[in-house]
Amino acid sequence: MNPNLSKLQAYPFERLRQLLASVVPNPAYTPISLGIGEPRHATPALIKEAYCKAIQADNGGLNVYPATTGDASLRASIAGWLQRRYGLTLDVASQILPVNGSREALFALAQTVVDASKAGPEQPVRVVCPNPFYQIYEGAAYLAGAEPYFVHSDPQRNFAQDWDSVPDSVWAQTQLLFVCSPGNPAGAVMPLAEWEKLFALSDRHGFVIASDECYSEIYFRDEPPLGGLEAAVRLGRSDFRNLIALTSLSKRSNVPGMRSGFCAGDATLIKQFLLYRTYHGSAMSLVVQRASIAAWDDEQHVIDNRAQYRAKFAQVMPILQPHLDVALPDASFYLWAKVQGSDTEFARDLLAQYNVTVLPGSFLAREARGHNPGAQRIRMALVAQTQECVEAALRIAEFVKSRE
Questions:
Q1: Is there a domain that residue 54 lies in?
Q2: Any idea what the CATH number is for the domain that residue 33 is in?
């Protein structure tokens, strides 16, 4: 077996299942889960209609192997969205590649980029990650033969990453940097100055930046979040050197089961990533491609979806803020709240007493330099309908009051 498999920790939701396995929820309350960031708003009708129409046309493409590059019409649709959303003009043939959801692509990109042969006894190959973080970054690093390095985060800046805390010796060993903006779990958006700093480090040390942007369309400011490719163009880097941005339709369009997204950026990296993916066998179904075109071409359903989240947060925040240390994120559909005492005990007792599930923050982070930045935090995914989220917030408020 691959020895690097032994380095993987249980996924956060498996750890949550184990934590809560012996808990008997209070039967006086109907169960409400805020634990998993799985969108539960209705899938837009136009996407379902496109999917059904595609399955009826020409056998739905089920009798042919789809190309790893995706159909030209899908890549053109993605390019059109990038132009409308960020004002970008990308080459459809060389700078855009459809992927089966950003999770799959984030993992596979590390396998493409990392050269583990460069490692020495005291010189590991590094993949730098946020902390707290999306667990795929760590697994991708280990299984590519690299060592993850977890960056300090600043609670005073909505858990933005403290890039200055990374020693030059670590940057010199780094081959890949994962960034997530808007962030998971705290929802911070990286400003242009932060991108400028990272681009300078990438130029100095030669590492690739993978920008995870899957929450980019759920935001609460008037101005949409800055994207990595957009930042590159603003800073005179229109070749997108050593930069790949990744996103998906899962959160934007409420279709996590469709497994559809794309990566875009540096044409040289895309070419090598395509080579890897050709052997990896990760082409997107033609039916999913047709439905994806319908999704990328339409913005009204995204506006409506964002409005639902804004209305939901507007009702939930006044209930929770008098009782929890919690702030509205820049973007995403999570609340990242500080709690008194153990975050795991908080989650267990909340389920037992009020039948509400939340995710302990320590499950989303790693202890680094003597501290787990997720400790005494919980993540609440406000993905259910508004009434259910409001009910959960009321129960959580009562629970916190009962502990005072």
A1: no
A2: 3.90.1150.10
